Amino acid sequence: MAMGHRYTPEQIVWLRESAPGTSFAQLTEQFNQRFGDSRTHSSIRSACRSRGIKNGLWRKYTKEHLDFIRDNIAGVPLRDFRIMFNEHFGLNLQEVQIHHIVYTNGFGNGRDNKGARNSPATEFKKGQVPFNKGRKGIHMSPATEFQKGNVPKNRKPIGSERICTDGYTWVKTKESKTWKEKHRLIWEETHGPIPNGYCVIFADNDRTNIVLENLLLVSRRQLVIMNQRRLITNNAELTKAGVATALLIIKANDKLTVRQKRKIYNKTAREKAKESESRG
């Protein structure tokens, strides 16, 4: 175990390899499990930032992230949308972070995101007097008011399904507008809760083929390697082989010495630098 706030060369190499595509919360949990340590979220984040290690998640969100928010935020409370977003992308964002993304990109759910500037033309202006000032408690139109206990006509019953623009099918699991990805539900019905740091993918890369035989459980580390090496294909058997290949790569990598890992890292860095120079 490292003393104080110091990190060993082996731990730094591990952080460089594991950070891409992994939230700092997940990275902290994996780090402590890997090295038997008890680092805090802020300690891991500071160690990464001071060494230029980036996970590509927190400061810049992808078009897929923003499209998902735009297409699914309407009418969903931020506390529920945070769960949807984290489960979909395998992250661990807090509600305040979701609010920040929504506000800075001008999205809104029409409920509790008061900061989002969706329609400046209709916003309440400073100094403007509300039309109902002094009429608090007066019923403006009792005949058309929504009565307590009434159920909206557009409320979806529990078990309802919807397909988002990214192709994933979501199922309503609770009355409080709580939705969950169908393929995760199917997996958990048979195998139990999905462990932290893991996700479920489709063997044939078809998000509409939601059957248990087509679902594969992989770690976030495996998924990063499979995406980098394009091991996820339309052929289920090839994808299954890719899962095994990614696991072998991880095991082989874990057995390398610190010097070997540093040598590989430096070699890769030089190759990338040469590529960028040739393109420039």
Can you describe this structure?
The protein is mainly alpha-helical and 280 residues long. Among the domains are: 7-60; 195-280, no CATH class. It is 45% helix and 8% strand. It starts with 8 loop residues before the first helix and ends with a helix. Residues 115-122 have low confidence and may be disordered.
Query: What's the total helix number?
Result: 10
Helix/sheet category: mainly alpha
Shape by Cα distribution: globular
Low-confidence stretches: 115-122
- What is the string of SSEs from the N terminus onward? HHHHHHEEEHEEHHH
Number of strands: 5
Short note summarizing the structure:
The protein has 280 residues and is mostly helical.
